[in-house]
Amino acid sequence: MFASDKVKVQEKTIGLWEVFGLLCSIASVGSVLMLVKQGLDIGFVGPFKLVLEEYEFWTHAFFGWWADPAIRLALLHVRDWIGLDLHLSPEWKHIFLILCVYFGASARVERSDRRWLSVLFTVLWGGFIATIGSVAFGSVLLGDPTSGVLACIVPVTAVVFYELGRRIWNATYFRPAGENWRENFLMGARIYVVPVALIGGFSLIVAVVLKAVSGTIVNPGLTAFFGFIILLGLRWVSRGLRRAINDRRIGESWAKRYYRSRSGRMGLYMFGVIGGVVAFLLANAGVKLLNQL
To answer: Could you give the CA distance from residue 211 to residue 116 in angstroms, rounded to a whole number?
Structure first.
């Protein structure tokens, strides 16, 4: 009877986790769409516009009564300390939720592997980095001449620092027997941190180029950051595919091997959000086209 009750509790816990993950994914889709709208000045029509307006209202309502006042109070002390006039723009909430796409995908991978301490670390460390990165982003006035580039630098740097923290954690608690800490950390940094930094550097270059040559993109930095998230997802998918092609067990299908790969699952979780964004944009474009016929 005790074992049966334990299984039921575990099933309920998994179910609640999946519901929570679904709600976070939906929120992340809405936040990505809000920043795509601001970066590319995409006009949404009919019900799509109403959905985004409703999402923005509830996002500001949820964060506005507790997070906004606390962060603004903290910024007052930081402003006195560093001597800069800092203001918090509402967009910080959307950057926070977008960063949670990446950090949340890591937590889901750890949960599926039942590495519960790593789940806790990912939630705490990812939440800390997402908060600092999004507030730093929100403190930069988007109308400032340099903000088009800074809008990309801040969240990209947050992801790089997150990966550095992950490598320290893994090297400390999950390195193979007989391997020293320095070797494990350097290998993890080479495999995970350096590629993320390179993708971020490429996205930054794209932001600078867009700022210089484009007159139609409202905020090149936000546009480049959206591209950064897509490239990160593609990187994880490609790592999963390499595992599926080159490292299968006897009789194991490539799809099963892909899903067994932590990298593959990470890519799937991220592209679940990106796919929702693309579907929303395509549907909006379809309605626009029908209205013009």
So the answer is: 44
